[in-house]
Structure formats: C-alpha cells, structure tokens
Design goal:
By secondary structure, the chain is an alpha/beta fold. About 45% of the residues lie in helices and about 10% in strands. The protein contains twelve helices and nine strands. The radius of gyration is 20 Å and the shape is globular. The protein binds flavin-adenine dinucleotide. Flavin-adenine dinucleotide binds next to strand 3, strand 4 and helix 6. Pfam families: MTHFR. Belongs to the methylenetetrahydrofolate reductase family. InterPro entries: FAD-linked_oxidoreductase-like, Mehydrof_redctse-like.
Length: about 325
Amino acid sequence: AAPVAVSEGAAPIRFSFEVFPARSGAAALALGHAVQHLAAAGPEFISVTYGASGSSQDASLDLLKYLRQHTDALPLAHLTTVAMPRERLAEVIRETLQAGISDFLALRGDPPKGSDERDPAVTASLDAVELIRLIDEVRAERDETGDADPRSGAGRTSVAVYPNGHPLSRSRRADIDWLIAKEAAGASFGITQLFFHAEDYLGFVSEAREAGLTMPILPGLMPVATGAQLRKVASLAGQPAPSDLERALETSGSAEPGVAHTVGLARELLAGGAPSVHLYTFNRHQQVLAVLRELGVLTPDPVSVGPRPPVDASR
Ligand code: FAD
C-alpha cells in the first residue's frame, strides 16, 4: 500500500515502525496480528530489536524471517555487539543475510544485567563503528560467494542517534563527532532515541549539519498509551516525562492524548525538515496507525477495512 499524499502536490509522508520479539506464545499471536496491520500501512521498513530487555537473539531472527516471508514490509535487523566475540557476530550477520535480510541497525548495546561499562567483556566489545565495518565485510563475502537471497537488495546500515545525549556522552560535540565517524564508516541513516520536544531533534540535527553530517536522521516517536507507560519509556530514554502529557493521560484514561502529542510533534518535525517518522509501536498497531490517520497518511486501517464485499450479480 503506497502512502497517500497529505494534500495535492505535497510529498507523501514517509514512515517506519519498530517492533520487538514476543516473550510468550500468546504475545506472539498478538504480534503476528499487529504486524499484519503495520505492514499493510506501507512503511518504508519495520525494524526488530535485538536482545533488548532480555529477549533472545533467535527470537529476533525468527520475527525478521516472519516479516520477510509473510508481509510485504522490508525487515531491518537491530544488532548489538556487547559481550559478543567478533566471530560470533560475523556468524549472526551471515545467518541474517542468508535469511534474505540485508538492512541493519548497528549498535553497541548496553552492558548485560549484572555487569557495567568497566566489565572486561564490555570494554572488549566492538563499538558501533567497528560493527558497521564488519557488516560490510560480511556483505562483501556474501557478494563474492554469490549465496545472497536473490530477493534481497544490497542493504543499508543505520545507527542510533541521541538528540539529548547518551549516558556515555562526554559532550554534545563528542556525540556529533562520533556520529560523523559512523557516517564515514558507511552508515546510511540514523534513528533517534525517543524524545518529547521538537526542538531536541531540530537543534541537534542543525548542529550536526553545521559540523558536516549529511545522512538523514529519522526521529523516533512513540504514542504512549498510559501514564505508567510514559514514565517507563521516559526513564529508559533518560528524560523527564512531560508533566502535561502525563496529566492528560491520567485524566482521560485513554490513549488519545498520547496520539495527539505524537501527531503535534510529527507535524513540527516534518515542517522543520525531518525526512520521515519512525514510530515505536510497543508491538501494538492501534496507536501508531491512529497517528498516521491523523497526519492524513492513511485512510482507515487497511486490514480492518478488508476486502470489498462481493458484487451482487442479481441487481
Ligand atoms: P555507540 O554509538 O558506540 O556509543 C553511544 C554513545 O557513546 C555515543 O553517542 C557517544 O556519546 C559515546 N561514545 C561511544 N564511543 C565514543 C567514541 N569513541 N567517541 C566519542 N563518543 C563515544 N539496545 C539493544 O540492546 N537492542 C536494541 O535493539 C536497541 N535498539 C535501539 C534502537 C535505537 C533507535 C536506539 C537509539 C537505541 C537502541 N538500543 C538498543 C540502545 C543502545 O544499544 C544503547 O543506547 C547503547 O548504550 C549504545 O549503543 P550505540 O550503538 O548508540 O553506541
């Protein structure tokens, strides 16, 4: 399904989604259903997290394969290096390419539970720049042996971006230099950590452009459904939850304020030059599709509308 233009002559709004592997059989059934709705909306890609919050790495590959085989959406594989020997990482990249998945988000990842940044297994891990190069090396090896899935393209590598800084960040300038190093190593675009104010993204991108960054930066947005969810994601992103949004979610008892907040943010970002919006789905399709409908990208949910009723031949 091609995205519908907002108004005549305007370029269609582009969008993508993030999902994570299900942690139970029941959640997997719900996810299969959500993913069908998400894919039918016509995203540029659907990304799948890797090892985040203790999920298994095999589960990520299974979900990527499901997307590849049962939807029209382009799957994008997150991959983290932390506590993984280089050879094992190369194997994971090989397996992913062999499954016909060529697009990656190259990440360092967080220290596993019970360890920290000083743990030798963590300090010995490849950083995001080294992972970008390793992915390219394995892609080149695949090109030489010619065992690529003919349906997959050459593939692109994306990287994480932190408009409000990363806990490891020494300074805004060091973050921007590090991002420029990721671009120089071969990254084609960036995806941001969650943020709540348009200025966080616009200010960061403008400084990065002045410093010489040229790759597109996709803003990562999440329409939160409840006050509790807002507090949780804000703490994971290391930012204070906006108190007006928190109050609105608590008072309304519905997900509507989260949708309205994301729509407002998306409008400001797109008007300020953002190339598209990347929506964190939390494995639910309802809120993100509501955002896209409000933005005028989608007519009613493509799956729930279903096939047209048969024509009544007797008339
Ligand atoms: P890096 O880019 O290697 O470094 C992060 C920051 O550290 C830099 O921005 C910079 O501030 C500083 N830094 C590091 N090295 C240098 C250097 N040499 N010079 C200067 N500064 C440096 N985690 C998961 O486990 N699984 C996932 O699926 C996942 N998906 C994510 C998706 C997105 C869009 C984002 C934004 C994050 C995701 N994360 C995920 C979290 C991510 O793995 C962690 O935030 C991790 O701590 C950093 O990974 P990174 O690739 O950004 O690291």
